[in-house]
Recover the amino acids of this structure.
């Protein structure tokens, strides 16, 4: 089996994650889409690590995980505080960017 | 030409406490001006004395410096006092420094001596003015700026002082600016001066472009070998500056209106000192003009035109101060003419400048005294027979009158006759010049005699043309129907008469004093160069002198016959065409309006139209385009984060697509 | 290029059949679960499907000679991150579900087109690219994978590691700050509750228990006070409303025939009198 399969799988997962971000309005689900994209990139990193026989890729995936954990903590905190003030978890309600 | 400088003049650093302290000459009046302006009303009681003290201090210090120079041999009398490094911009480095030499010190002494006297005079003259303190602040500012002008060792620093005196002049002309005509007169003087300043700026730029420096040493030291065209251009631009400041043709129109200022201002700034700055500039730039005969010829022509112009205007004016202003214009015309004659004339220009400073300031102060006694009236047709009521004013004014006429042995005789003689000295290559300019100078002497005698007789002699309150009707010219003004002429207080007396003594003696020994000509030699006796005037000197005196006598007689022997009409008669023109300053304002102001107005209007239609149209069109594009693009900015994410993603796809397309 | 590396490069490492089987079992599951993220109506279902994807990924990591990452994936993602998600879902409300009506004009179309376009571009790039032949991690993982990864992390990337640690601490602090709620009202303690009850004029003591002093101590029998009068509030409010309260008459003390004449008097006022 070629390692390309893994890459294709990662691409598909990434695409699904991105599409989730575009289509869903629940902030938590959108956020899960982002996590899915991160996981897809991790799969790519691990695959390339194996392809090149170099562990740096895995280390990079590890750092991605750590950073993603930090990001999740902050992101969810933001979602919670927004939900508290606006009683809504919809990303479309947070449109203060427009005036 | 440079062989004329037989004395090998070397500039040397200033030595001694007096010379090193020369900066105090400028700083003390400046600080005094600052104190007077900042101290406010609490300085009202003593402020004027501070002004007098500051000016007197500068005079005493100037005197000390002069004696420190006279104790040196002539070749060492040019001293440079370096103050500080002023500008350093790229290749242009200008150091602020003073040049102490006979020329600058002559000016320093004239400015501070006459200035101090006028300060004293003003203490009494301005006594009833609420803003006397402010007046003294401006006077001190003027003294400081004028000293900076004459002491500067570079054209740039000179220009600084040049602008400073312009500012002081503007402030003082418009001192009573609550009356619109005064403010307008101040503005007119300022604008006319700006045109001259433009010439100065261009000249400085040309110097920098040509010589890489603007200090006297650099510029004057490299004159040899400069293209004649450049030299002529610099000379003409400097002349333009001089015409602006010295009220010479064609920028002369502001001086008459400048009489709107208080009379001491007219005496100090618009007669004795500031208006002579143009002469100073030409003489100071002697090495430049020596090498530019064309520019010098233009200088002479300008001087000659102004000489006659001022004299003609002065012969028709009934306003005492304006007549004196016209006379000033004419006399400065003499100086400019002399300065344009080249090395033979420089010293005489300065000589006449000094004597003129004395007698004209004296006469202006006399005019101020007359106005003081006559309820600020200036129309000479309402004067007459004042000699009985103002004895001191009459005598001092009379001495000044004799001096300006050039009657021996009064001051004007010594200086003006020399200028007339110099004008008759033939110039190699163009014999017509001597005859033309000599005749003009000679004619000017006769005209001067006429208009000054007219002024003098109308004011002090003849019958009184005012109501003295006694009920006795004075003898009047036939057909007078107007009511006479009620007047109580009286002599001015001591503080005013003393300066007038001092100046009148100067009017009598200064010419003779400065001719003792080698005189002022010898004193100025380190600056103006030694003139070997090159050529004689086209007519013998005794003949010239006789003719001059005869013309003067004729002028006096004519004036006597018209304005003293007969009854002078209170209402000016219609007069000849020339008289009417001269009363209107020979239509110079109309000419200015027609030639400059109206085209300028039209140009401005068309520019405004163009601005509205084209520039604004373009600008607003662009703005509308932007607004339109913005309102379209605004729809994209809907504030929804998902929409932005979609944009990003599409952008990414397009980007990758483009990269891939480029690779394939 | 040294000869050893050349030799390593030329020796081809292939995937095992077991791995292939594993991949083909997991990949469809993962894609379907991931699609659940797009289509699931409820957020909890979406979260569960993401967990499925993540655990499957852990399997794939292990299969790809990255057992350390596989474990970390389970611990960090499914153990911490997804639990956090579920926890927040609980806070916000499990029921919160999207309305399916799209609010942004054409966003759905744009989303689908962009998604499909991205998929085509990505898959196209990935499949058409030329890769070097697989080297495999056998050499790198000689000392077991965690040891080798640790050597890289604490060797080349130790500074990054420290920075990431600082980031995590900062993130924790940030979460505290973000979710901290400023107290707007005074804190309600026991004292404040008691004060409030007194201010409301209610009874300070517990209500009397039913049946006390009555001849019967069932729940529906009112208690009697010291004068033998029945106490209405001793019977549960529910029973009273339902009308299941027993009559007072049959349980009151017989020694007080006139007790019914004074029910309007409050017990307290009588005491004071």
């Amino acid at each position: 089996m070629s390692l390309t399969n893994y890459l294709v799988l990662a691409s598909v997962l990434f695409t699904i994650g991105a599409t989730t971000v575009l289509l869903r309005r629940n902030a938590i689900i959108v956020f899960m889409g982002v996590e899915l994209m991160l996981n897809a990139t991790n799969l790519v990193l691990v695959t390339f690590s194996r392809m090149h026989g170099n562990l740096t890729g895995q280390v990079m995936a590890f750092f991605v995980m750590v950073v993603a954990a930090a990001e999740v903590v902050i992101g969810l905190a933001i979602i919670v505080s927004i939900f508290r003030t606006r009683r809504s978890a919809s990303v479309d309600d947070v449109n203060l960017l427009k005036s | 030409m440079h062989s004329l400088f037989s004395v090998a003049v070397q500039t040397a650093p200033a030595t001694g406490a007096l010379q090193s302290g020369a900066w105090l000459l400028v700083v003390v009046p400046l600080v005094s001006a600052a104190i007077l302006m900042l101290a406010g009303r609490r300085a009202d009681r003593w402020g004027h004395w501070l002004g007098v003290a500051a000016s007197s201090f500068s005079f005493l210090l100037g005197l000390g410096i002069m004696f420190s120079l006279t104790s040196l041999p002539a070749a060492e009398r040019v001293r440079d006092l370096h103050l500080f490094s002023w500008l350093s911009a790229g290749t242009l480095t200008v150091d602020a420094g003073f040049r102490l030499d006979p020329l600058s010190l002559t000016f320093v002494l004239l400015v501070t001596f006459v200035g101090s006297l006028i300060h004293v005079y003003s203490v009494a003259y301005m006594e009833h003015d609420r803003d006397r303190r402010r007046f003294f602040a401006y006077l001190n500012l003027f003294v400081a700026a004028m000293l900076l002008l004459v002491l500067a060792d570079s054209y740039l620093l000179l220009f600084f002082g040049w602008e400073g005196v312009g500012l002081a002049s503007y402030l003082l002309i418009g001192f009573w600016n609550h009356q619109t005509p005064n403010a307008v007169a101040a503005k007119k003087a300022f604008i006319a001066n700006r045109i001259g300043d433009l010439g100065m700026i261009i000249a400085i730029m040309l110097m920098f472009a040509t010589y890489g420096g603007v200090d006297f040493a650099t510029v004057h030291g490299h004159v040899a070998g400069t293209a004649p065209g450049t030299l002529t251009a610099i000379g003409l631009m400097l002349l333009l500056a001089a015409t602006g400041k010295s009220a010479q043709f064609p920028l002369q129109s502001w001086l008459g209106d400048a009489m709107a200022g208080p009379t001491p201002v007219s005496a100090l700034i618009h007669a004795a000192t500031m208006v002579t700055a143009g002469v100073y500039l030409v003489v100071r730039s002697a090495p430049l003009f020596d090498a530019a005969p064309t520019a010098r010829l233009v200088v002479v022509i300008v001087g000659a035109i102004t000489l006659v112009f001022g004299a003609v205007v002065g012969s028709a004016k009934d306003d005492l101060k304006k007549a004196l202003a016209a006379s000033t214009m004419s006399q400065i015309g003499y100086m400019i003419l002399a300065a344009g004659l080249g090395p033979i004339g420089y010293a005489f220009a300065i000589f006449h400048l000094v004597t003129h400073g004395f007698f004209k300031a004296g006469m202006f102060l006399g005019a101020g005294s007359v106005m003081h006694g006559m309820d600020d009236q200036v129309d000479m047709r309402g004067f007459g027979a004042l000699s009985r009521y103002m004895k001191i004013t009459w005598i001092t004014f009379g001495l000044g009158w004799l001096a300006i006429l050039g009657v021996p042995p009064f001051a004007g005789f010594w200086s003006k006759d020399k200028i007339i003689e110099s004008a008759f000295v033939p110039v190699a290559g163009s014999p017509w010049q001597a005859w033309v300019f000599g005749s003009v100078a000679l004619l000017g002497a006769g005209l001067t005699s006429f208009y000054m005698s007219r002024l003098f007789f109308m004011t002090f002699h003849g019958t009184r043309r005012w109501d003295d309150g006694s009920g006795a009707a004075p003898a009047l010219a036939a057909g007078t129907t107007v009511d006479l003004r009620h007047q109580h002429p009286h002599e001015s207080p001591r503080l005013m008469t003393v300066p007038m007396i001092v100046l009148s003594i100067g009017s009598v003696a200064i010419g003779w004093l400065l001719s003792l020994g080698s005189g002022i000509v010898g004193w100025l030699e380190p600056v103006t160069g030694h003139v070997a006796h090159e050529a004689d005037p086209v007519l013998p000197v005794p003949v010239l002198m006789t003719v001059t005196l005869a013309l003067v006598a004729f002028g006096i007689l004519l004036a006597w016959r018209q304005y003293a022997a007969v009854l002078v009409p209170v209402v000016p008669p219609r007069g000849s065409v020339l008289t009417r023109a001269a009363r209107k300053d020979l239509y110079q304002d109309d000419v200015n309006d027609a030639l400059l102001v109206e085209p300028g107005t039209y140009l401005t209007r068309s520019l405004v139209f163009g601005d509205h239609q084209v520039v604004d149209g373009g600008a607003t069109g662009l703005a509308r385009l932007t607004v339109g594009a913005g309102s379209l693009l605004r729809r994209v900015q809907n504030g929804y984060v998902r929409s932005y994410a979609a944009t990003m993603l599409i952008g990414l796809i397009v980007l990758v697509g483009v990269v891939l397309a480029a690779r394939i | 290029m040294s000869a050893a590396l050349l030799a390593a490069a030329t020796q081809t490492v292939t995937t095992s059949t077991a791995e292939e089987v594993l991949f083909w079992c997991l990949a469809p599951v993962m894609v379907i679960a991931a699609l659940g993220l797009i289509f699931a109506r409820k957020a909890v279902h979406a979260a569960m499907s993401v967990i499925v994807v993540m655990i499957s990924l852990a399997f794939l990591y292990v299969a790809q000679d990255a057992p350390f990452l596989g474990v970390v994936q389970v611990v960090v993602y499914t153990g911490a991150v997804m639990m956090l998600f579920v926890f927040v879902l609980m806070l916000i409300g499990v029921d919160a579900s999207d309305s399916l009506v799209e609010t942004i004009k054409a966003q759905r179309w744009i989303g689908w087109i962009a998604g499909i376009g991205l998929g085509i571009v990505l898959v196209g790039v990935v499949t058409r690219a030329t890769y070097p032949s697989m080297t495999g991690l056998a050499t790198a993982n000689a000392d077991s994978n965690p040891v080798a990864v640790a050597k890289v992390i604490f060797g080349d990337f130790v500074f990054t590691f420290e920075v990431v640690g600082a980031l995590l601490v900062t993130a924790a602090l940030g979460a505290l700050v973000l979710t901290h709620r400023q107290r707007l009202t005074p804190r309600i303690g026991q004292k404040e509750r008691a004060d409030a009850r007194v201010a409301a004029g209610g009874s300070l003591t517990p209500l009397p228990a039913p049946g006390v002093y009555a001849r019967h101590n069932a729940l529906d029998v009112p208690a009697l006070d010291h004068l033998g009068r029945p106490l209405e509030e001793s019977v549960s409010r529910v029973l009273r409303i339902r009308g299941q309260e027993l009559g007072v008459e049959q349980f009151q003390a017989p020694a007080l025939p006139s007790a019914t004449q004074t029910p309007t008097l409050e017990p307290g006022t009588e005491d004071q009198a």
